[in-house]
Structure formats: structure tokens, C-alpha cells
Amino acid sequence: MLPPALTELTDYFAPLSTFQWEEGGALTLLTPGVNVLGLNATYLPDAFPDTVPDLRPALAWHRAHGLPPLLASLSPLPETREVAALEVGRFTPTETQDSGIVVEQISRLHIQKWAEVLTAARGTPEWATPLARHLAAQLETGRDYVLLLAYSGAGQAVGALLWRAGGAHLWGVIDAAARLPLLNAAWALADTLRVSTVPGELELSEISRVIFSLAPTPTAA
Predict the structure, then answer these.
(1) Which candidate, 186, 198, 169, 127, places its Cα nearest to that of 43?
(2) Which superkingdom (predicted)?
């Protein structure tokens, strides 16, 4: 059984992934051609590391699809290299000064623009088109996802967020002034919001820290 924070992430990301594999309590989501961490990881169960599931089939599956053997857990993992960490917690709406930021819900017809903003915010603009193509196909059936874009006073798109059922685990801003208006707008969709963020970026409550680590690549005998 996965810990609550990891279940929260897999519930959000699984409908957007291409492949899924479940074994020994671990759940693997793989999405070749998309660089989103949450869509390309094996999520480890509560019992890890006290009881170690056999991860060899899942990690072989990563490699068979040309993807790094990425593990998501709540605790540091021995013999792995941590590559990223996220805080998963509850966001409380915050009053902001008038910055001229406007947040709008957009249709799936504008997903290319949305992806351009998100990938620019993550420093990976070259992934915009692959991400847009993938999400466009997945969201055809995922009608419970909502796309939000934040615009500056000059009309420039400066923030992007994908909302589902009170959760926002895929979002980013080019302009820091858009952060709170974007999250406030997402919170208002259900009067609650659970988010993933870089540690220290936001003041959250009920926080769990999720660690993404690379498993070692086996060497030839």
C-alpha cells in the first residue's frame, strides 16, 4: 500500500500516464516522450525500506522503455542518488496586492500555449510540443482536469496549472507575481487545494516530502 502522499500523486498522474505496472505494492507510471517526473517513476509502498519489494521487474521496465530507473519514496533510499524532492501539502489562499495578474480557465484547444508556459517555467521549453501532444490525447477522456493560464497586465501568459479534484501537482510560473493568483484561482475551484512544490517555495500545511531517486544501473558481468 502506498503512503497517502504517494497515493495522492498517483491518483493525479495515473490517468495522464501511458503505461502502468503494479507489483509488490509498488506502482510504476511510465510516459515515454514526456519529461514530467510524476509521469515517469516507480512509487514505493509504506513498508519500504523495512520490507523491500522486488523492484527488478519495474526497473527493467523503465529501461526497456528507454527511461531512467526513477524511484519515488518518502524516505531516502540506500544505494540510490537523489535527483529531486517535492513537498506535497495543503495550500491556503492568500491575499495578494493588485499585480494585474488575471487567471483564466482555457479550453484544450489552447493546450500548446499552456505547455509552452509550463515548460518555460521549468526551464525545459524544448519539451512544450511533446507535452502538449501527449496531454491533448490524454485529456480527451480525462474531462475532470481543468487547464488554467495566468496572464500579466500586458497580456503575456506567465503561469500554467493543471487542476484535478482539488489537486495541482503540475504547475509553474514564469513571473513570481503570478504564483499566488494562480494558486488562489485553483483553490477556488473546490475551496481546497493540494499542491506539489519545490521545498521552501510555498507555505503549506500537512506537508509530506517526496524524494525522487535514481536506482543504480546494473553493470554487465
Answers:
(1) 169
(2) Bacteria
Angle between helices 128-138 and 111-121 (to 10 degrees): 130
Rounded CA gap, 206 and 92, in Å?
A: 11
Torsion of CA 215, 168, 124, 13, to 10 degrees: 50
Phi, psi of 127 (to 5 degrees): -90, 0
Strands 70-73 and 205-214: antiparallel
Residues with Cβ within 8 Å of 83's Cβ and at least 6 positions away in sequence, in order, are 70, 212, 213, 214
Q: Name the residue ranges covered by the structural domains of the chain.
A: 4-87+207-214, 92-192
Residue among 17, 178, 4 at smallest CA distance from 89: 4
Between CA 28 and CA 190 the distance in angstroms is: 29
Amino acid 6: pLDDT: 97
Using the predicted structure, report yes or no on whether residue 79 has a pLDDT greater than 60.
Answer: yes
Return the CATH fold of 92-192.
Answer: Aminopeptidase (3.40.630)
* Nearest CA-CA partner of 104 in 159, 141, 145: 159
Give pLDDT tens digits for 33-48.
Answer: 999 999 999 999 976 6
**Long-range contacts from 106-112, C-beta under 8 angstroms, 24+ separation:** 106/147, 106/148, 106/149, 107/147, 108/136, 108/139, 108/140, 108/147, 110/147, 110/149, 111/135, 111/136, 111/139, 111/147
The residue count for the chain: 221
